[in-house]
Amino acid sequence: MKPLSLSKVYRLIEPGPVVLLTTAMEGRANVMTLSWHMMVEFEPPRLACVVTWGDHSFAALRETAECVIAVPGVELAPLVVQIGNCSGRDVDKIATFGLETQAAERVAPPLLPQCFANLECRVVDATLAERFNLFVLEVVKAWTDPAVAETRIFHHHGCGEFSVDGERIRLESRMR
């Protein structure tokens, strides 16, 4: 074993797929790329995500307490990275990138139908938002595209490196 720079630890622990997070505030929808998130409960489904104070979406998420987490397939990876490389402060990302939107059922931010799954979420705990940029979200409605038979998601490992889901294996588990 040899020492690893602490600035590279996140590259080992990155928990989940790269997703898109939509918010809406004062009649304007925004979208950001997000990869710092994790499941924290199964029923009801809850997840935690880090949206830093420097992100344009932070204020909207804190003020409105709702968002949509859209899960793109790997075919959208170049677009998702472009979305993450600019700020909603400067660019109307939905218009600039030609994103199709669809009204959500239980929250104001839009669904992104080009993604194979969309999760309508409400913030249930923001006590750590100011200190750690951490929001706990509860999924209140979930959507999938029935036309998509198999999906491959991608994961961010930092510095422009990504991995794509590959072969799946099945092992005995008590999880449903």
UniProtKB/TrEMBL annotation:
Q: Which SUPFAM superfamilies match?
A: FMN-binding split barrel
Q: Which domain of life is it from?
A: Bacteria
Record's keyword terms, sorted: Flavoprotein
What SMART domains does UniProt report for this protein, alphabetically? Flavin_Reduct (SM00903)
What are the Flavin reductase like domain coordinates in residue numbering? 11-156
Q: Name one Pfam family in it.
A: Flavin_Reduct
Molecular-function annotations in GO: FMN binding; oxidoreductase activity, acting on the CH-NH group of donors, NAD or NADP as acceptor
Flavoprotein as a keyword of this entry, yes or no, is yes
> Is this entry keyworded Flavoprotein?
yes
Give the record's family classification: Belongs to the flavoredoxin family.
What this protein is called in its record is Flavin reductase
This protein's species is Aliidongia dinghuensis
Instruction: Kindly list the organism's lineage.
Output: Bacteria, Pseudomonadati, Pseudomonadota, Alphaproteobacteria, Rhodospirillales
